[in-house]
Design a protein that fits this description.
The complex is a heterotrimer of chains A (about 350), B (about 425) and C (about 280).
Chain A lengths: L1 H17 L11 E7 L2 H18 L2 E7 L4 H10 L6 E5 H9 L26 E14 L12 H4 L9 E4 L6 H8 L7 H7 L1 H13 L5 E4 L4 H7 L5 E5 H9 L5 E16 L7 H11 L2 H4 L13 H5 L3 H4 L13 E2 L2 H20 L1
Helix pairs in contact in A: 4-15, 6-8, 7-8
Chain B lengths: L18 H41 L4 H6 L1 H9 L8 H13 L2 H14 L3 H10 L1 H6 L5 H8 L6 H9 L7 H5 L3 E3 L5 E3 L7 H32 L2 H16 L2 H12 L4 H9 L12 H24 L5 H8 L4 H29 L3 H6 L7 H9 L5 H25 L9
Antiparallel strand pairs in B: 1-2
Chain C lengths: L8 H31 L17 H8 L1 H32 L7 H13 L2 H14 L6 H25 L4 H8 L4 H30 L2 H6 L7 H11 L3 H31 L5
The chains are: A alpha/beta (about 350), B mainly alpha (about 425), C mainly alpha (about 280).
Main location (chain C): membrane
Protein name (chain C): Permease protein
Membrane topology (chain C): Multi-pass membrane protein
Chain lengths: ~350, ~425, ~280
Amino acid sequence: MKGILRVSAAVLAGAALAGLQAPSAVLAQDTVTVASWGGAYSASQREAYYKPAAKEIDMTVLEDEWGGTLSEIRVQVETGEYKWHVIDGESGTAMAGCDEGLLAELDWEMLGGMDRFFPGAALDCSVGTISWATIYSYDGDAYSGDNVPTTIADFFDLEAFPGKRGLYANSPAASLEMALIADGVAADDVYTYLLENEEEGLDRAFAKLETIKDEVIWWDAGSMAPQLLADGEVAMTTAWNGRIYNAIVKEGKNFVIVWDGQIIDYDHWVIPAGHPEFDLGMKFIEYASRPEVMARQSQYISYGPTTAEAGALINPDILQHLPTAAANLANALWVDTVWWADREEELTERFQVWRSQ
Amino acid sequence: MVATTGSHDVMRTADGVPLKIKLRRAERMRKVWAIALVAPLFLFLVVGFILPIISLLALSVEDPDLTSGFPRTAEVFQEWDGEGFPSPEAMATFAEELSVAERGQFGRAAKRLNYDISGFKSMVKKTARQSEQLALLPLDQIHDGFIKIDKDWGDPAYWYAIKNASSYYTDYYLLWSLDLQRDQEREIVGVSPDRAIYVDVLLRTIEISFAVTLLCFLLGLPIAYLLATLPTRISNLLLILVLLPFWTSLLVRTTSWLVLLQNEGLINDLALWLGLWNEPQELIRNRFGVYVAMVHILLPFMVLPMYSVMKTINPWHMRAAASLGAPGWKAFLKVYFPQCMPGVAAGTLLVFILSLGYYITPALVGGPGDQMVSYWIVQNMGQTANWGLGAALSCVLLLLTLVMFFIYNRFVGVDRLKVN
Amino acid sequence: MAMPSYATTLDRIWYVTFRVICCLIFAFLIIPIIVIMPLSFNSEPYFTYPMPGFSLRWYGDFFSSPQWLLGLQNSIIVGVFATLVATVLGTLAALGLNRAEYAGKSTILAVLISPIIVPIVITAAGMFYFYAKVGLTGTLAGLVFAHATIGVPFVVITVSATLAGFDYNLIRAGASLGGDPLRVFFKITLPLILPGVVAGALFAFITSWDELVIAIFLASTEEHTLPRRMWSGIRELLSPTIMAVATMLILTSIGLMIVMELLRRRSERLRGITP
């Protein structure tokens, strides 16, 4: 059946195009395709990894953009038609994909062992490439003097700081934890509290979110958050720290990042399960995880490295804007990937039901 | 074949074959030709369109996660009647298969079981980690072994959830798409309120489609009437105002409304300047925005069929009624409107059918409470990779659409479907 | 329609009110399309009037962005090939449908029309899954294939409409004069149904040109079409470059609409229907 379909498909559509498709360039070197998030983030990877890879390890890196959903990986694994060698995915995706057998277990010997990496950045099927934070930010022109938001509780305080709030639409991750910290749970205790009082704790977090629900404008793409701020559609919004940093530095916006109750997370390199060119994918990941290579990326975007060795190589001027800078860590929370991996789907479902009610 | 050779009352063609047969042959040839001409497209659509949809819909009744990862467990759990606990032998089979399962196998099964009972996923993973010792336990201790790993194994509901996922064909996802599930007695009951959403979404889809259709009708009727009654030269010019939106990309039109309706958009600016309101009003990311944009996009589909019917109605009927003393509105309602019914039926049904499947426009100008079934199909096919549920929702939406299309075909006729 | 002499005052008021209402509805239809075009020439990246100045910079952005240009190129390639496939197959099928009566014809017609009835999200989701199995995702061929399926019904409908007034005696005459079927088709049938075929082709093209949902499901970055690129753009940042793209799309639509109107009038004249 598959054969017949393939043939008829090829005859009807493929043949029509055959004359038109440019012959693919002849590449002597290894070629891998890496899927990532696009925009400024992909640009930073291009400078730090993709371009130098051609010279340093004789590898051509092709770029693709993806939506970050497991479906996109699942369809490749189940059909055996692989588009990507290596994927830059969120930690939840990496964890769930590993559990579901959609991602290959990495060759940790090649990567120099798990201990090189920060806790949580080294998992069976994935290795951290950056650390980033969900922070909240406001427009410095909108608040001034003494009355400026300084804590995560202020984000939920509509009386002291009236106005619309921006929140991430696709997942409750980070928003739930922030709600709990704002409601008085110490950042360090969030997951222990949730493990001990799961039902009550989640209800409490949703109840806290409910207090601002009517004022929320939802964003679902990373660049929408700074845009909502810039357009004055919201008074404050949660955002990924690199996006706000970019708006401040590159576009000269007077945005302020509040380093309180931020949720720090990793992005991971992963390889789809069963990929025939697994070795090429590993070769790229090994290269991108070398301290001197990894340290380059924060020159182009304000995300941090995932190994201490790479951290030591970063210029202190840059370091202070990274989520992992000591001054920014006073009341921060490192996301518990394992906790989320077990609950992501049901909490996302609950969150979407709640949002749509 | 009634024609007999040799009889004189049979008409023959030049080559001596009875005319009847020759005609029948020609008729058959024509049919063969007709079918041969349709066949390439038919096959093309079967491969490129029908099969993809069937393969999608098939996902809604398949439940492969447990049956492929734990085939023997699935088999023994299917034989269990679901009363109390399964036999120790069944539990042992499960423990054994857990101990040898690859990561992906139990990961997918755990994800599936978690749909039934939240928290089941971590429990299965925890159990899998200790399953090697578990599989070695004698039969009379196996259940206690499970309970020692997690006390919830003492709750029959968890064992029942495994049974619930153990058959390859299932109504699980279809029920889920209607906020239903089977309890331990195999009775169909509603899901808990914090998960119940899809019936609401379905009703919302129908409500939005209905409202959009009604609004399109109310706005479409006057201009269709005007176009039909004006002299052709003027009406042809005005028709351009209907045709241009019709030809303009849906995405472009939605974008325009995004620009017009946003907080710092043109409508708000204009209203503030005119003093209609004092601070920018929320005009998008809510139902209002969805109605405005959808009505704008679908209005031409209402106007064009009504116009083409109205054009054929003799305006003298109205005048005759008026001259007989009927007031204008009465003449319109009693004389004119009934004659427009074919156009009205075509327009309203078409707009309703098209509305049901809307995705892009509500996604851009609606808020979370304005998303229709299509949005949740995209969510489940993409974001959460719950293909079974996405496929089940597709079944519901497709069924609804086909019912409406059947009505359309019955009252309007598919051959009347015009695009220009 | 002028006011008849026996109209009452009430009728006159109603007459004026009715016209005003109609004007408002026409304004509602056309203003959103008109209003965004000038914004694409705004010198500043804002979406309000009055505009501070006139500039072509957003068009410059478009034509200097490899991504937008790739989108344009993909849209053209996919549109042209999908139109070709849809027009050839759709025209043949319409001829077959109108040639004879046979059992199951209305079912076949319903199947051929179904791509415009089935909600596009379902079509796209099915293709996402099924085309991946046969290796058609992530290729332009896959998009061509997909867009052809949804463009086909328009060709079938428009060609069938032309054939409704078609005099089959012309074909018989052609055949009786010794023309073989192929020759009869190209010399007699095709010229007569050409307006319908071209109209169908235009519909098939615009369907592919505007199509977004299938592109969201099937196309990876290399295959992004213009609407797909626009979709990413709108969700990330509503830039004036998008207004420039929108303006160009609107101008394309106007062009196609004019061609279509000319065709329609020509075919009405040919068939002796003078409006």
